[in-house]
Amino acid sequence: MLSLFARKKTQWKFVPQTISLVLNSTVYNNEPENYRCPFCCIVEGVEGEFPLTKQADVIYRDEVITAFIASHWRPDNKGHVIVIPNAHIENLYDMPDDLLAAVHSYARRVARALKIAYGCEGVSVRQNNEGAGDQDVWHYHVHVVPRFEGDNMYQSYQKIFLSDPAERIVMAEKVRAALS
To answer: What's the average model confidence in pLDDT over 150-168?
Structure first.
């Protein structure tokens, strides 16, 4: 038996477990009590003020994953796509391998489509875990971001803005066309 320390809800506690139990169980969860997951709402087809993403923003959905145009954009990286598992799984630590493969395989398809749809010069793929890792929605997700020379994406964090739903529809149509 290996003694480990695990972080749970911003407090450290002693957790005596075997390595396999730690590696295959929920250990690092930060989702607050009574959390209403916006990504689960998208999967369920919820429309309204919450979530900000609309069903018209969804570019792909099957029984395992959903992909949609993000509601918040950076000035020079508009129309990035978020790919999620339909099941509510908070982070990388809890993702089953087959589901992880499905999400990232589709993220690769999206990356290729963004090159066609937007004429971008590159693509960044980001996945964040926990507050310190900049995770702000407690549902596993991958950002697929169109990149352009000199776009200063990492310097424009403070300039993120809520996009116009009409603009997202145009972007979603372009990406759907590139995926077909």
So the answer is: 90
Task: Give the separation between CA 15 and CA 3, rounded to whole angstroms.
Answer: 6
CATH number for position 94? 3.30.428.10
Angle (CA) 88-179-142 rounded to 5° is: 30
**Residue 159 falls inside a structural domain:** yes
pTM for the predicted model, two decimal places: 0.84
Distances (CA, A) of 85 to 99, 112, 131, 148, 151: 7, 20, 20, 28, 29
Domain that holds residue 152: 56-179
